[in-house]
Fold Tryptophan halogenase.
Amino acid sequence: MLSIKNKILIVGGGTSGWMTASLLAKKWPDSQIELIESKNIGTVGVGEGSTPYIKQFFNALEIKEADWMPYCSATYKNGIQFVNWSKTPGYEQYFHAFLSDLDEKYASEFEQATIERRNGQAVKAHPDGYFFLQSLTKDLRQPVTDAKVDHENVYAYHFDSGKLADYLKQYCLNLGVKHQYVDVETVELNANGEIAAVISQEQKRFTADLYIDCTGFKALLIQQHLNEPFIPFNNNLLNDRAVTVATKATAHYQPQTISTALSNGWAWKIPLTTRTGNGYVYSSKYISDEEATQELIEFVGEDNLISEPKIIPMKVGRVKRSWVKNCVAIGLSQGFIEPLEATGLHFIQSTIETFILLYEMGEGTDDYQEVYNREIEHLFENVRDYIVSHYLTNTRSDSEYWRACREQIKISDSLKALMNAWCSGKDFRDTLVKAEIANIYPSESWHMLLAGMGFLPPIAGAHEPSMQEQKILAKIASEYQHYVDLYPKTHG
Ligand SMILES: Cc1cc2nc3c(=O)[nH]c(=O)nc-3n(C[C@H](O)[C@H](O)[C@H](O)COP(=O)(O)OP(=O)(O)OC[C@H]3O[C@@H](n4cnc5c(N)ncnc54)[C@H](O)[C@@H]3O)c2cc1C
């Protein structure tokens, strides 16, 4: 194992700061790592959903579910239920399932149905019923079992992000990471424009070979002092604010995030063992904070509230380069795409892993800086396009907002190519591979999204499954039931 001996200063102790410190401390035991954070400036305090990729993070740290999950009030996530995004009859909701080995047999049947429908046949081609983790979810079952099974499931988690940061902090301190509470006042640059020191309000100087900016949306080092430009995504994605409230936990939680389209955005519902997290993500151009708060409270039920509403402004976009001179931005400081697919922590993890790989290849130099910045740009743009697709394919006409999401947003050339391939009935899997977008979201995810939204040619009678589909779905249901029974029920 290559070991980097550099001195590294991480500024910011939110989830990104502690995730970064954990992985660096684990991978580079010879480097001196220090994390400084303000006691006065809070963390963003959200980030309860994840993608399955986060499992690799805990594996890399050698932390077991039995250790971190109870501490972080965590629950299992089998996928996302999308509700009311489409008004097309028969497509008012769909489940975006994470995949299981068991899906190998029947995912192709679903894909085949979408091909037939896209080529004019009267089949429904809705994803529900084809994927094993949806069967588990319907029956309130978790995706892991002690029973002996011959397949593996891909799954993710929901958790209290504040507690996760606390847990990782303890992990880091045990590995020798130094920690101090200080408020950073300014940053000193040298003649080459690199960071020479970070200066606290008490005029204490912190120096390092490498500085990591984890200061959240304010991007204190990378934007405020290194002046790296910010590329907003507000032409592609309209939402710029969120309001959150917590409600009571339920005894048997639903192992899914529920994403429900509301009048001017969408609301998440995320089960934790101690509470249910709710938030409404909306566009301030179309609805005020007061109206959005009221709509969310009505949606979750006033009697269920256990916290006050909190408004969170969102800066959606990315810095042009997230590694500039001797500074790397990780977390909200490098960019943010609204949380529809819970990708915030995914970006953080992917960014650190890519950085570790390329910094090691360059033996602790910036030889691979350009490669790194291209990779991160690619990641952000691909995820953005996937999120944009949800808005683009909505069929709501009940507000100006939903019409604007369909008609006024900017679409990248690669997304246009994908949509054209889908609509023309061409081989969509092949187009995805060429667009390299399938590296992040597999072909199955794209098929679930586009068919689940009912983004299909209108054909008489196709809002109900055809006889052939009904036969296959009945066969799958009886085959999966045997496996479903092997998994325990969820509990609060
Ligand atoms: C509405 C919303 C919903 C989200 N939902 C999800 C989700 O479901 N899943 C997901 O993966 N992600 C989600 N995210 C993203 C996720 O919350 C963030 O990626 C994650 O919390 C990381 O934040 P951070 O550590 O970069 O920044 P922050 O949490 O803002 O932390 C910033 C840190 O910098 C410190 N700091 C700032 N200024 C100074 C200073 N001058 N001196 C010293 N320290 C300073 C602060 O004290 C703090 O410790 C969501 C984000 C939003 C806005």
